[in-house]
Design goal:
The protein has 116 residues and is mainly beta. 9% of the residues lie in helices and 47% in strands. A hairpin with a 5-residue loop joins strand 4 and strand 5.
Length: 116
């Protein structure tokens, strides 16, 4: 049997911009994506701690070391600049593998969105 499990999480980062007039997605600093083992185009769930919104979109690689967390397109209506969000990616794996799998969880500096 295959099950969905937490694969990756970027815990508590601030939205640095919201660009409504763009093709939908979330742009994430490349350092954060690599640390969390998230690839460009991967489906992610966004949890907004400020308003309780949960939504899905896909990732775009942002400038390395920038701390960029930018919501694009329709996603820009779900969070405002300065909102604190959690970015989650799930994987589908066998239950046997799931019992020993360790997710990639990143806790960046909440003020700068940079790795500690």
């Amino acid at each position: 049997m295959l099950i969905h499990v937490l694969k990756s999480k970027i815990h508590r980062v601030k939205v640095t911009d919201a660009n409504l007039n763009y093709i939908g997605s979330i742009t994430i600093d490349q350092d954060l994506m690599e640390a969390a083992n998230i690839i460009e185009g991967e489906k992610v769930q966004i949890v907004n701690n400020n308003n309780g919104e949960r939504f899905e979109t896909y990732t775009i690689v942002g400038r390395r070391g920038s701390g960029d967390i930018i919501l694009n397109g329709a996603a820009a209506r779900r969070a405002m600049k300065g909102d604190v969000i959690i970015i989650i990616a799930y994987g589908i794996i066998d239950t046997k593998e799931a019992s020993t799998f360790k997710p990639f969880i990143v806790f960046p500096n909440e003020e700068t969105n940079l790795l500690k």
